[in-house]
Every structure is written in C-alpha cells, then in structure tokens.
Automatic annotation (TrEMBL):
Insertion element IS1 protein InsA helix-turn-helix domain: residues covered: 43-86
Keyword Isomerase attributed: no
Family, similarity comment: Belongs to the IS1 elements InsA family.
Keywords: DNA recombination, Transposition
Residue stretches making up the InsA N-terminal zinc ribbon domain: 1-36
Organism: Budvicia aquatica
Protein name (record): Transposase and inactivated derivatives
Function per UniProt: Absolutely required for transposition of IS1.
Length: 91
C-alpha cells in the first residue's frame, strides 16, 4: 500500500493518507486514515476555496451584479446569493 504525507482537509492533521482514485477533473483523491474521509488537494469547482466568500463580497460592494460575480468567479448563482445573505450587512 502506498502512503504519502498530506494534510487532511477535514481534520487538518498531516498524516499518512491512501490514494483513493481520482475525482472530478482528474485530480487524485486521498483517503484519510484518521477521520476515514476522502478529499482532494485541489478541486475543479472553487466555490469553497478559502477567500472565495471575501471575493464575492468585495465584488458585490463594488457594485457587481450577482450574475456578473457568478460568471467571473465561476461559482454558481445560488452560491453567490448564499454567501451574500450570510454576509454582514454593510452600512
Ligand atoms: Zn482526516
């Protein structure tokens, strides 16, 4: 069995993980031996990347529309709306 050291995105521990095939976009998936969950190091869909919420809010505060934000950042319309709803009200 091939194990490599990768930081698990669920438990945030660097530990041996097993390869777990490939996910969407051909990125390798890994299986965490500790929390028994699978994850990828990089994802095709970037809506849940750190900083995405900030980018969405920044664009909205600059007057960009929801559709424009969604298209520019390549995240779903509903994702943009959800982030904006949960954001702190400005002003
Ligand atoms: Zn884990």
């Amino acid at each position: 069995m091939v194990t490599i050291e990768v930081a698990c995105r669920h438990c945030n521990e660097t530990q041996p993980v097993r390869k777990h095939g490939k996910g969407r976009g051909g990125y390798p998936r890994y299986y965490c031996n500790d929390c028994k969950r699978t994850f990828q190091l990089s994802y095709l869909y970037r809506a849940h990347q750190p900083g995405m919420k900030e980018k969405i809010i920044e664009m909205a505060s600059q007057g960009a529309g929801i559709r424009h934000t969604s298209r520019t950042l390549k995240v779903g319309l509903n994702t943009v709306m959800r982030y904006l709803k949960t954001a702190e009200p400005v002003g």
